Automatic annotation (TrEMBL):
PROSITE patterns: ABC_TM1
PANTHER family attached to this UniProt entry: INNER MEMBRANE ABC TRANSPORTER PERMEASE PROTEIN YCJP, MALTOSE TRANSPORT SYSTEM PERMEASE-RELATED
Domain ABC transmembrane type-1: 89-280
Annotated source species: Lysinibacter cavernae
Broad class of where this protein is predominantly found: membrane
A Pfam short name: BPD_transp_1
CDD domains cross-referenced by the UniProt entry: TM_PBP2
Bilayer-spanning residue ranges: 32-53, 89-114, 121-145, 157-176, 197-224, 259-280
This protein's name: Multiple sugar transport system permease protein
Amino acid sequence: MSTMSQTRLNTKATVQPTRSPAQARPKSRKQLGYTALGIALLAVMLFPVYWMVNASLQPSGNTLTATFFPWNPDFGGYEKAIADQGGNLITSLIIAVGTVILSLAIAAPAAYALAQFRFRWINIALLVIIISQMIPGIVIANALYSAYNDLGMLNSIPGLILADATHAIPFAILILRSSMMGIPPSIVEAARIDGAGLFRAFFSVVVPVSKNSLITAGLFSFLFSWSDFLFALTLTTTETVRPVTLGIYQYLGTQVSNWSAVMATAVLSSIPAIILLIIAQKYIAAGATGGAVK
């Protein structure tokens, strides 16, 4: 290669287009404006959460005289909330974990069948699943109340787990199916050739590959059950089984003069959901879009 050619190549490699300060300034101002707008919208959306925490730390228990910042925080509301609602929090946790286990145990095999099998009734089954999510919850709650009354399942944790699972399973099937449609049948066939049965191939191959979507479906099932109020109100008639959502509702009638305890209960009931969302956020992003691109 000649010296002139080498010089031209070096010149092309080193010369880069540059932007003038006048061109860079409007873009930086525009980005700064978008950032400021985003921060303002985030502050507006998170202000109720902040005020809930602030009110829970007020020593007087009256939100009308609460200051904007709790300069003298008082944790008496949390002590009362734990004493009065601690059992309800544990009940809600048991129901939510049971709902996750039951929902994934039913939704995962069903989603894999709807994703991999090629039958004419698949589209009909998907339509039925979508329609089931359109049924008002009060209709399902009334039907379950009549059935539970005959079966003796009112005021029971298994009854609430089954009721919450009816709301979580259809959504979990749709999430899992979109992910499992991207699983190559060849890897399952390879496991079958190696001697694995249908169930062994499913649990050893399909479940690990679908980890992100399983975590996503499980998290939403947990949130559905944790925030349930309608089934808890309809299917419990005594105080033997009381989820925290129903506990807060009944708490309002007796603690109207001590809002710090009510807000402390709300803060405590928000902690499990916040922790799970923070831990599983990367799995949610991957699981929600697992079947979008093939």
